[in-house]
Structure formats: C-alpha cells, structure tokens
Amino acid sequence: MKKASRILFYFGLLLLHSGQIHSQTFVTRSIKSFGAKGDGKTNDTKAFEDASVFFNSRAGNGKLVIPAGTYIVGRKLSPKSRIDRIAFDGEKIIRFISCKNVTIEGQKNSVIKYANGLKFGSFDPETGKIFENNNPLTLDATYGRSIGQCIFIEKCTNFTISGVTLNGNNKAIEYGGTYGDRGIQLVHYGIYISNSRLIRINNVNSGYFALDGIVVRNQESPSPDSIFISNSKFEYNNRQGLSWVGGNFLEVKNCDFNHTGQNGKNSAPGCGLDIEAEDGPVHFGRFYNCRFINNIGLGLGAENGNSFDCSFSGCTFWGTDYYAVLVKRPSFTFLNCRFYGTTVAGYDAVNSTDATKFIRCYFEDKPYNQVYKGKAVYIFDSDGARGMIVDSCTFVANKIRLAWMTNNGTIASQQRIVSNTHFIVKHASLVPTDVFLLLRGGVKFKNNVMEFTDPAARNKSYWPNACCIADINDLGGNKVIFH
C-alpha cells in the first residue's frame, strides 16, 4: 500500500513537472488557427480575441503569426447603462497583459484593418444621433463612443511586433460630435504600450487611426524601458503619430511620423511626435534618421511636463500648417538635422547640460509640395533662451526673415553662442534698415557669414541693423557677403 502511494505521489510530481515544462514551452500559432479568414470581408475580431486569451493564459512564450491577407476587425457594441462608463466602449483587438517572450509577426502583405462605419465621438445614447456639446469641458461619459486599441500591451517584457500593417480606416469612421477639450479625445490607437519593457517594433505601418498611431505610457522606473522602434511608419493619424507620455530609454530609427491630421479630420495637438510627460517623467529619447513632415500641428512638440534629455540625429522636420518644431524642455540636442518652415526652440537654461543645441543643422523656409503655408515672421524663433548653442549651421531665407535670437541675463556662462554658421538671404523684400537677423542680450557671435544673394540688398543696410548693435558680443571672424 505504501509502495503504491509512493508511486502515485511520484507520478503526480511527474505530471506537475510536465505541465510546468509545457506551460513554458515557446509555441507558434497562426491567427488562422483561431478561425481568422483574412479575406477582407469576414470580421475576424473574435479570432484575435481568442488568440489573446490563449497567449495570456500561458503568460506569453510564443509567436502569433499573421499570414498575408486583410483581417477586418472592430465591432459596433451595445451601449452600457452605467452612467460612469463610456456608452460604446472600444475593444482591444490584440490584448497582452503580464506576458513575456512574445512575438507578433506579420508576413508580407498582412493587414489588420478596422471595419467601415464604426462610431467615434459624441452620440446621443438614446437616439444614436450625433450630439454636439456646446461646452466640451462638461463631459457626459454615456455620450462618448470609442473604437479601441488594435494592439494593447500592458506589463509585458521582451515583446516584438514586426511586419504588419495596422489600418485604423479613419476615413470610413462615422464621426460624432466633439468629446474633450480639443476635437475628439476618445480611444482609437494602433499600438498602446503601458508599463512594458524590452519592446521591439520593426517594419510596422500603423496609420489612419482616429487618435494616435502609437502611444508609449510607462510610469517612472529606475530600470531602462528599452523600447526600440525601427523602419516603421505612423502616418495620417488624426491626433498624433507618436505620443510619448511617460517612460525612459526610447530609441527610434528610420521612422516616419508624417501627415497627422491631413486626412480630413484632426484633433489637437496634431503632432508627428508629441513628448509630454503625463504618467511620469519622459527622458532619454534617441531619434535617428526620422521624418516629421506635413503634420497639421507640430512636427515635434516638447513644451510641457517633466520631459528632458532627448536627441535627434539626421532627422527632417517640415512644418506646413504649423511650426516644424516647438521645444521648451531641457537638454534637447539636434545634430545634422534639417528644418523646413519655422522652428521655435530654446530652454531657458542656467547650465550647459540643460541648454538646447543645434549642431550642423540646416534651416529654410522651403515650401512643401511647392505650396508655402507659413505665416511666421522668422525661420528660427528663440526668445530669451539662455545657453543655447548654434554651431556650424546653415539658414536660408527665401521669403521671410532669418532668425530672432535674444538672451536672458548677462552671465557669460549662460549666454548663447552662435558660431561657424552661414546665414543666406535670397530676397530683398524688406524695407531698408529692416531686420533679417535679430541678435540681442549678449549673444556670442563668432566666425559667421551673412550672405545676401539679391543685388538689391546691398543698398538697404540690412546687416548693420541686424547684428552690430551694442549688446552683441562680437567675438570676431564675422563677415558680410553681397552679390
């Protein structure tokens, strides 16, 4: 009897051990094994929900393969009766929580596309008709209809998304009235990352969403978030290409954050990239060879919150309807970047670490697709920012003025430095003695060239009025060239 009991006991341990091994085994499943059709007609939302349940039940450890095809997702949900809930809650199509070692791999020509006719905005919960709130700051949650998130990742580690197109189909949405302070501030995201680390996104196209292409929302942590985004596009979304509202150590390479709000509908801010600390500090962002072009708002916005220590190398910012860049947070550096339109920049720094820096950058009021929408007066507007460094840059003015640069205070270590920079003016449309380049407040000015290519500029006395006034710290080596 004792011997039989021992056998049963060890057999039970063996079964338990086998179950543990099985739960930790990395598995690969196709979305079609969960019933998805991918035929561009069938609604495959249920298949993605079932796949999410499967992988969440085993805490990850697997790959979800999405074969070629167009997978329609998103459904019109019934209104909730509770007054504190949004009437039409959005759905999380692919949902992973507390998972590790997960890959979502799209094969060539794999597209997840939202269904036509989904409602987004304010609607009367009784009649279903569009509701326009005359006071958008007074919200009744039962009137709001969200669509949801396509890929939702929360408290996950070692997660990869690659090779898939996420299409929010924002042109085919049935829009309601405004909800929130600016436009429709409800839920429709391509990728939503919350409190997750070691995330890799490569060769993903997340566009045409009614809110953002991608959101990174991590709370403060002593460990690096290690989020890597590469070779991806976040275009034609209504509010933002990328919203970074919390976290650290975000590296982005060769990505496009373009045409936000340029698809017929938009909600503010309308940026390509918005860096705005909300859930915790935002810092240590590194962007390489990225494009921020033709957004209805800013190409890059970093104006509010505890955001700092971000650098951009080899990036292009092209402002059309609004500024190319608006940066007012500490320790932002731009290296070998190109700026078209107007750039408004400069943190009022008291030390060199926090100062805004532009090194080997190019600025021009160049029209986008041969159309110039700019209404600004200067290509570069930086009023009162101490410590800024502008070195080895080029400014080209085709229609407007070059730059407004003033400095707060007179402490030598806090004075901005403009050096080895070439200022080129290609027109002479201003009245005589007007200002193309305004430098005041002890700006250090060294080894710079001011060049006028229009012969009419020679007799209009632009240069002396623009530079050589009493409060400019002329360190020598500056010269003027007239054609």
Structure, explained:
The protein has 483 residues and is mostly beta strands. The protein has a domain at 330-483. The protein is 8% helix and 41% strand. It contains three helices and 42 strands. The strands form four sheets. It has a 26-stranded parallel β-sheet that branches. The chain is elongated and about 75 Å long. The N and C termini lie far apart (108 Å). The model is unreliable at 1-22 and 464-468 (pLDDT under 50).
From the structure above, extract its key features.
single chain, 483 residues, mainly beta, 26-stranded parallel β-sheet, 8-stranded parallel β-sheet, 3 helices, 42 strands, elongated, disordered N terminus
Q: Layout of helices and strands, plus pairs?
A:
Blueprint: H1 2-24, E1 27-30, E2 39-43, H2 45-57, E3 60-66, E4 69-73, E5 91-97, E6 100-106, E7 110-114, E8 119-122, E9 144-145, E10 148-154, E11 157-162, E12 165-167, E13 174-175, E14 188-194, E15 197-202, E16 205-207, E17 212-217, E18 227-230, E19 240-253, E20 271-275, E21 282-288, E22 291-295, E23 300-302, E24 307-313, E25 316-319, E26 325-327, E27 332-335, E28 338-340, E29 343-345, E30 357-359, E31 362-364, E32 378-383, E33 389-391, E34 394-397, E35 401-406, E36 417-419, E37 422-425, E38 437-440, E39 444-446, E40 449-452, H3 462-466, E41 473-476, E42 479-482
Parallel strand pairs: 1-3, 2-4, 3-6, 4-7, 5-10, 6-11, 7-12, 8-13, 10-14, 11-15, 12-16, 14-17, 15-18, 17-19, 18-19, 19-20, 19-21, 20-23, 21-24, 22-25, 23-26, 24-27, 25-28, 26-29, 27-30, 28-31, 29-32, 30-33, 31-34, 32-35, 33-36, 34-37, 35-38, 36-39, 37-40, 39-41, 40-42
Antiparallel strand pairs: 8-9
